[in-house]
Amino acid sequence: MELLNQTGISQKAFDELLQNVHKIGEEVIRPNATDVDAKARFPLEAINAIKAMKLMGAYIPTELGGMGLNISQLALICESLGQYCGSTAMIFAMHQIQVACAVNHGSSNEHFRNYLKKVASDQRLLASATTEMGIGGDLRQSICAVEVVGEKFTLTKNAPVISYGLQADDLFITSRRAPESSANDQVHVVVSKQDYDLEPTMSWDTMGFRGTCSEGFVVKSKGHIKQIIPAPFADILSQSMHPTSHILWGSLWLGIATDAVNMARAFVRDMMKKNPNAPQTAALRLAEVHSVLQLMRENVHGCANHYEQLLKENNVELLDTFSFSVKINNLKIASSSLIIDIVSRSLLICGIAGYRNDSKYSLSRHLRDAYGASLMVNNDRIMNHNATLLHMHRGD
Amino acid sequence: MVVEKVREILLKTGRLSVPVEQLADDSDLYIVGLTSLATVGLMLALEEEFDIEIPDAMLGRKTFASIGSIVEVVQRLNR
């Protein structure tokens, strides 16, 4: 780990930034969310508005031209974006996960410092090719391998899912270190658009997160060996990709859940205005779901703050412990389950108005997005992993 | 010798793709197939053999990364 500026920006500057995120949320992101969802199209307007705020470089240290936010601040941005469009927030989060890998594991390296400067100044969009056909979702195994000749390499990967692959400027690809390497001797390689071809293999027509355009491709790429992140992928995963993914995903799911509860609240208020003598059932349900939302929020914020603290201390030993992995896995399992619970409860409150696609209280997109959370990196796989790791846990 | 005992335990519990005697003390055990489930068996056998309890702070990927790193932890706890 090579930490640069992880201290974040001042509370005042951050509050202002967050207000502006809500502003583009209201003015640009929400007005396009229904169309993005209906057509399963890339949220171009939203991403352009995010780029105009220079947020692609939010986690890049200021000395490299970024904003220098810390992980908790970044998580709050994901949470805010999630309130307007789940797909936009997901794309933003996935981009930032790749940024975090490069910042945490490449910032002392000349090539990656220059690369991060370019990401910040050009507001490049980074995508990731981790899963592989023939392996499934296990990130710690690869079939494809980097083939090096002199200082150049080629790499071909059959990736069943590359979210916004066609819209991205750069791809972060996991692969075996060399053709003779074992499946888990992996590296993380960064290639730019002019150096790869994407041959489409699978479309993306799903229930939710439709705007992420997570299509399948065979990637054929080439580059210079300095584009291989120097740290082993095992370290990048445990210290950066795993915690950052679940914290940022949990945050945007929290945003979706928050918007659902906000709608339920508005619905109950509307109902009270129309008929003050109506039974208080919906209000009671609102009180219930509000407490579940608080549970979810405190868990997500708590984990983000814990990770922020470990990064600040550069506490690589603790980041590498099984108990930290278990904690991050627990965050994923809890937040992906709670989002379904919260959106479902909100739907009961809004009733048929929530069930409709054409009402201002429609929760159709929220509910469909919510179900994706437990399936992307399947909860059963994560729980099996924790079942093993807990044998090596002394207790809390 | 701790290192010989560790090698013996690794042979029984590691389920590695390569014979333990072919491994150097600094060979990466994950690359030769040490899984998290096998790590559980390895940890339990080490604790039993050396009468130690590996604390949470040391229970991580790096501890079991090589024969050398295991020996180091055992020696530290055995003092």
Low-confidence stretches of chain A: none
Total number of strands of chain A: 7
CATH H level of chain B: which superfamily? ACP-like
C-alpha Rg of chain B (nearest Å): 11 Å
User: Biggest sheet of chain B: strands, sense, closure?
Assistant: none
The CATH homologous superfamily of the largest domain in chain A is named: Butyryl-CoA Dehydrogenase, subunit A, domain 3
What this model shows, in words?
In chain A, the strands form 2 sheets. A 4-stranded antiparallel β-sheet of chain A has the order 2-3-7-6, with no helix packed on it. Chain A has 12 helices and 7 strands. Chain A folds into 3 domains: 11-124, Acyl-CoA dehydrogenase/oxidase, N-terminal domain (Butyryl-Coa Dehydrogenase, subunit A, domain 1); 128-227, Butyryl-CoA Dehydrogenase, subunit A, domain 2; 233-392, Butyryl-CoA Dehydrogenase, subunit A, domain 3. The mean pLDDT of chain A is 95. Chain A has helices at 11-39, 44-52, 71-82, 86-106, 110-122, 233-274, 281-312, 316-319, 322-350, 352-355, 364-373, 379-389, and strands spanning 126-129, 147-149, 152-162, 170-176, 186-192, 196-202, 215-224. Chain A is globular and about 80 Å long. With 396 residues, chain A is α+β, with helices and mostly antiparallel strands. By secondary structure, chain B is mainly alpha-helical. Chain B has one domain (2-78): Non-ribosomal Peptide Synthetase Peptidyl Carrier Protein, Chain A. Helix content of chain B is 49%, strand content 0%. Chain B has helices at residues 2-13, 36-50, 67-78. In chain B, helix 1 packs across helix 2 and helix 1 (2-13) packs across helix 3 (67-78). Chain B is globular and about 30 Å long. The two termini of chain B are 14 Å apart. The mean pLDDT of chain B is 94. Chains A and B meet through helix 12 of A and helix 2 of B.
